Amino acid sequence: MSRRSPLRPPKRLLLAAGLGLLAARRALATPYNLSGKRVLISGGSRGLGLALAREFTAHGARVVLMARSAAELGRAAADLRDRGATVHTVTGDLTVAADIERAVEETARVYGGLDVLANVAGLIQVGPLENMTEEDFREIMEINAFAPLRLTRAALPLLRASRGRVLIVSSIGGKVAVPHLAPYSFSKFAVTGLGQALRAELAREGVGVTTVHPWLMQTGSPRHALVKGQVKKEYTLFATLDNLPVLSLDTTVAARRIVNALVRGDAEAMIGGPALLMRYAQALAPQLTADLLALSNRFLPGPSTGDRAVPGASVETPLTQKNPIKQAAEAEFNEGGSVTPGREGPS
């Protein structure tokens, strides 16, 4: 015979009620109003960073763009000002602590504070694991994982004061590891964990954190990727998949969905139907997903004898050069200039 009092509800009922209250609170939460907000975007000069800057400013936000190239920043700023946006630029390298501090301080000086930090800049390396070195893994971790950590920590005093928001751009590669993108997935799994940790710890201080996981996007950025192995084959495959109609996402649409996820206050958001399908496949059938990915690797180019990385732009082929979607994306998102390998806006 149970000793539980008939007046005391079962623990499972209490848990269900608590979860229901949390869900109701979330559903009734007021969307975050971006009008007049001050937004710092790393990797904001081109690719997804530029697309997000357009979307933020379309909501009435004022933006600061940080990137390494002053020329690219100048073109991006002109693009945004032509659209009626308020924009300021900071030239700096995310691997340099003084540059990170300066970007945050400059945002506060120009706009009087900071409301949203968008961690967008990313490095991507393409090629077989056999051709990747430990240094490749360390280099990509610096940009894709440690840079968002350092920039967020530097910005936290301002974000606490404004009860602001943090956006972390991860990838479907941060949920499902993809062959020939081993260092990239390694770093994106790390930044996904960072986003979850920040979300849990900063909520009590009024700072919201949203981590997004985009599918392939037509950003025009493959030419900045670092390629190893049989470089022409690797790059042709990567650049083609990144710019296939239906399979890859329109970058403007992806940027809108990302900003909407931030406005709603989502903890995580999968951007694109294929990303959502891969997430559920990994969660519900991890063995099958692993087997299918292992099978797909059999059809990819094999390793080469050297470990030298080259920028994608140096191994263009007629097939990639004449791809109209790729050409349009490069022109639309400021990707057609001189190549600074890997950074300022992930694919």
UniProtKB/TrEMBL annotation:
Protein's UniProt keywords contain DNA-binding: no
UniProtKB keywords: Oxidoreductase, Signal
Pfam families: adh_short
Residue ranges annotated for the Ketoreductase domain, each copy included: 37-217
Signal peptide: 1-29
Family according to the record: Belongs to the short-chain dehydrogenases/reductases (SDR) family.
Name used for this protein in its record: Ketoacyl reductase
